[in-house]
Amino acid sequence: MEKFDYTKAMAELEQIAVHVEDPSTGLEDIDKYIRRSSELIEACRKYLRTAHEKIETLNNQ
């Protein structure tokens, strides 16, 4: 399993936004982009929660 790259995920989300905002993007593609963005958002939230927990642990030592 490859390590999660937050910066790469955010860049992909930005690209998805560009595609979804493009009037020439079809509905099937928009559905695909929405599903992918949901996956990325959940992964980013998990990453940030983990980072926050690590910081809290370090602060409490």
Written description of the protein model:
- The protein has 61 residues and is an all-alpha fold.
- It has one domain (6-59).
- Helices cover 80% and strands 0% of the residues.
- It has two helices and no strands.
- It has helices spanning 6-21, 27-59.
- Helix 1 (6-21) runs antiparallel to helix 2 (27-59).
- The radius of gyration is 15 Å and the shape is elongated.
- The mean pLDDT is 95.
Written as H for each helix and E for each strand, in order along the chain, the element string is: HH
Main sheet specs: none
Low-confidence stretches: none
Number of domains: 1
Care to count the β-strands? 0
- Briefly note the structural class of the backbone: mainly alpha
> Percent range for helical residues?
over 70%
Globular, elongated, flat, extended or rod-shaped: what is the shape?
A: elongated
Descriptive tags:
mainly alpha; 61 residues; single chain
Short description:
With 61 residues, this protein is mainly alpha-helical.
Secondary-structure map:
Layout: H1 6-21, H2 27-59
Helix pairs in contact: 1-2
